[in-house]
Amino acid sequence: MVSGLIVGLAFGLGALGAVVLGKLADVYSLQFIMLLCSCLPLIGLTSWLLPSDKKTIE
User: Fold this and answer.
1) So what's the pLDDT on residue 8?
2) Using CA atoms in the order 33, 21, 38, 43, what is the torsion angle rounded to 10 degrees?
3) CA–CA separation, 21 vs 32, rounded Å?
4) Can you give the residue range of the structural domain that contains 21?
5) Does residue 27 sit within a domain?
6) What are the 10-residue block averages of pLDDT along the chain, 58 residues in total?
7) Considering the entire predicted model, what is its pTM?
8) Which of 6, 24, 27, 46 places its Cα 20 to 30 Å from the Cα of 16?
9) What is the DSSP string of 1-47?
10) How far apart are CA 20 and CA 14, in angstroms?
11) pLDDT value of position 54
């Protein structure tokens, strides 16, 4: 039951994202939106900078 909720949420947010990106592509340009989307993985790469949750023994 929860997995269905997660899948539904993923599809719903994907659809909303497509609408928003489509509107932005109309306002600006498709090239700009493609460049913007290609930079999104950089946000994920910043997770390497987060501190570790492992406890160190001193």
Assistant:
1) 95
2) 130
3) 10
4) 2-46
5) yes
6) 92 96 96 94 89 75
7) 0.66
8) 46
9) -HHHHHHHHHHHHHHHHHHHHHHHHHHS-HHHHHHHHHHTHHHHHGG
10) 10
11) 78
pLDDT at 49: 87
Would you state the structure tokens that stand for residue 7, as one six-digit string?
Answer: 């899948």
Give me the number of domains the chain comprises: 1
Residue 28's identity, in one-letter code, is Y
pLDDT, residue 1, reads: 82
Domain assignment present for residue 53? The answer is: no
**Burial track 29-41 (b if 16+ CB lie within 10 A, e otherwise):** eeeebeeeeeeee
> What is the token pair recorded at 36?
């913007």
Is the residue at 55 inside a domain? no
Q: Which residues contact 16 (CB under 8 A, 6 or more apart)?
A: none
